[in-house]
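If your schedule permits, I should be very grateful for your opinion on a structural question. The matter concerns a single protein, recorded as an amino acid sequence and a row of backbone structure tokens. Could you please explain, in whatever detail you think fit, how the structure tokens follow from the sequence? I set the record out below, with my sincere thanks for your time.

——
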Amino acid sequence: MDQPSGRSFMQVLCEKYSPENFPYRRGPGMGVHVPATPQGSPMKDRLNLPSVLVLNSCGITCAGDENEIAAFCAHVSELDLSDNKLEDWHEVSKIVSNVPHLEFLNLSSNPLSLSVLERRCAGSFAGVRKLVLNNSKASWETVHTILQELPDLEELFLCLNDYETVSCSPVCCQSLKLLHITDNNLQDWTEIRKLGIMFPSLDTLILANNNLTTIEESEDSLARLFPNLRSINLHKSAGLHCWEDIDKLNSFPKLEEVKLLGIPLLQSYTTEERRKLLIARLPSIVKLNGSIVADGEREDSERFFIRYYMEFPEEEVPFRYHELVTKYGKLEPLAVVDLRPQSSVKVELHFQDKVEEMSIRLDQTVAELKKHLKTVVQLSTSNMLLFYLDQEAPFGPEEMKYSSRALHSYGIRDGDKIYVEPRMK
């Protein structure tokens, strides 16, 4: 069989990890020594290979010499072949079958949709636990073939593959714990439920950047479909428009982490309102949008929820409101406290035998107040003495003798008194 044209895996490996390009590193599995090599072989006497090989964007199209791969890669556990030109699953199989301890394989952005994956080739992936097929446009038939041959697969990445539907596998994959299927076009919840059927042990489901619409599923059905789901990511699910969709997340019996940013439902709320309303509606979650929900925050959010809905018409009040009223009782509305500094006060102005109530601005200085009082008391500012009497102060009036001092610094309040006296000559 003719070797495909292009750069081989082994050729790139020798170039990148030769002693000239990759200094020798001490430690187990870091240097592999092969004492005798065939005449003219590209293999050096020693390649300094780590257990994690990163060969992305190297133009790889084929495997190369399988004996050399086996000789050098016996200790390799992780292999990144993303952004290469591998289009034949048979060539990928040649590589993987000669890396016996491989657990992580990244085949993202290789044109592998151009060939069919046969089961005998997929069998070489048997030991892989984490498989990345992002932007490979791998068909569901390819995915099903892989699932049947990877009994220990725990994490699967299927992002950017233009999926609009999900095709159910003929067999369940009991081992899969994490499915990363972002940036596709999965809109209908009937497609998502197929994932629950295929992966009954799923712990983490990442569905961000799909156009997911309303969750059309009964609570009992959701619990059966995703009995072990602990974490779900629904970022930018453009079709989620109602709170009932959020409430249905409570149907997952083990759910404790939720990510919900960029959905239309939440756009009209402030950041604080979004978080508190979500926490109050999802009583079992311990982490929201990546942040831990503390016990104190949960109680604050639930009390906020009660007050938020207490003025709504009865037909618009969610069931969760009644649950929380049972828990905390009916709460009084929070008092509205204006924490802005007071800008003016009403004081009693005393001059000779006259008393006049007047309003004064607190942002002005003593000198400015004197100018304002000139026409009232018929004294020049230079011939005017001011005294301030705090109604609760035990020490009597205080002379306001610093012209540049602001009135608010005296702590003047409504009902206090200001005395005006002429300066003694």
Remarks:
- Residues 123 and 149 are 5 Å apart (CA to CA).
- Residues 295-309 form the longest helix (15 residues).
- The radius of gyration is 37 Å.
- The chain has two domains: 7-19+45-328, 344-422.
